[in-house]
Design goal:
Helix content is 16%, strand content 33%. It is built from 5 helices and 15 strands. Strands 6-7-8-9-10-11-12-13 form an 8-stranded antiparallel sheet. It has a 5-stranded antiparallel sheet with strand order 4-3-2-1-5, sandwiched between helices. The chain has a two-stranded antiparallel ribbon with strand order 14-15.
Length: 342
């Protein structure tokens, strides 16, 4: 029976329309072919909690139109139902002192594809405050709240972020080929930049079809032809979300064995006969990161080569051991280490 309800992991929501009434936001999500429609309701009358619920029904196109019409008529006395924005996924929700904010992708651009799965970058994003102005307290306008909000908006999601609805881009090609694919997107992966931002939504809804898993780094794909043979080369760099920070401010390792400036780079070469699994492909992965010891550097304009300061004596190299155990778990042995220190 083709009319039965599809399993949430068997399709992905890729296109959304955001509507609002006085009391609620309605996010209408559909798959790429606009065959299945889902409805997410977000309560605007709750000043400090994230009150969201998913309609269990999978709607065909016509029924979703009828539903919106009913919602509009039912809210006519308080201003009806209004269209807010076209959306391409939720980056996450965050709360500082009181109210929740929701970060949305409002424009996207395809930057490539892997085995027929589209990879996107963000062209435009929007942050909206969830509670209606009538229920917001003075906290919403406090200096500290505004400062946090400004810090959040200073993150430019249009640079160096990429994602896919259907391909786990945070994992290497080899890992994806060997996985069963049943588990959906692995948001707990170290290369999912917005793992924390999406946690509130994912834990409440018990699925991850409304959010996108963003990777911070770089994605570049080129089509080449040599002696009449077509192939594509993809270069992907993924930055770890653990122990992250700028170059001189974060160095070495932390207590959990996570190192600073931890980046995995993958080069995929795909024989482009068909653009599908039929062509031959290869993937090479290498990792770079800070030396896994407790060390730091005081950067200054006067010293082009700041001194290396060993902050802490770790006689058993416990954190270093944790780091190499993690590498072995992720990539298997042997691990070959290159020293890049001048």
């Amino acid at each position: 029976d083709t009319e039965c309800t599809p399993h949430p992991n068997s399709y992905s929501l890729e296109k959304f329309r955001l509507y609002e009434t006085r009391a609620r936001y309605y996010l209408i999500g559909s798959d790429g072919n606009k065959k299945y429609f889902r409805v997410l309701k977000i309560d605007k009358m709750e000043p400090s909690e994230l009150n969201i619920s998913e309609d269990p029904v999978v709607y065909p196109p016509q029924e979703v139109k009828n539903l919106l019409q009913r919602v509009s008529e039912g809210n006519r006395a308080t201003g009806g139902l209004n269209f807010v924005s076209k959306v391409y996924g939720i980056v996450g929700c965050i709360k500082f002192l009181e109210s929740y904010y929701m970060i949305l992708v409002t424009k996207r651009r395809q930057v490539g594809s892997i085995c027929g799965h589209a990879i996107y970058s963000i062209d435009e994003s929007q942050t909206i405050i969830i509670p209606h102005p009538s229920v917001q307290t003075d906290v919403a306008h406090l200096k500290t709240e505004l400062r946090y909000k400004k810090l959040l908006s200073s993150v430019d999601l249009t640079k160096d972020f990429f994602y896919s609805y259907t391909y786990p881009i945070m994992r290497s090609l080899q890992k994806n080929m060997l996985s069963s694919g049943e588990e959906g997107m692995p948001y707990d992966n170290m290369f999912v930049w917005n793992s924390f931002l999406t946690q509130a939504i994912r834990s409440r809804l018990k699925n991850n079809i409304w959010t996108i898993a963003l990777v911070h780094g770089s994605f570049k794909q080129l089509r080449l032809s040599i002696f009449g043979r077509d192939f594509s080369v993809t270069l992907i760099s993924r930055r770890s979300r653990h122990f992250a920070g700028t170059r001189y401010l974060k160095r070495g390792v932390n207590d959990h064995g996570r190192v600073a400036n931890d980046v995995e780079t993958e080069q995929i070469v795909l024989d482009d006969e068909t653009g599908s699994y039929k062509g031959q492909m290869s993937s090479v992965v290498q990792v770079r990161g800070s030396i896994p010891l407790f060390w730091s550097q005081e950067a200054s304009r006067f010293s082009p080569k700041p001194d290396i300061i060993l902050q802490r004596y770790d006689p058993t190299y416990e954190a270093t051991g944790l780091h190499f155990e993690d590498l072995a778990r992720r990539y298997g042995n042997p691990i070959i280490v290159l020293n890049l220190i001048k």
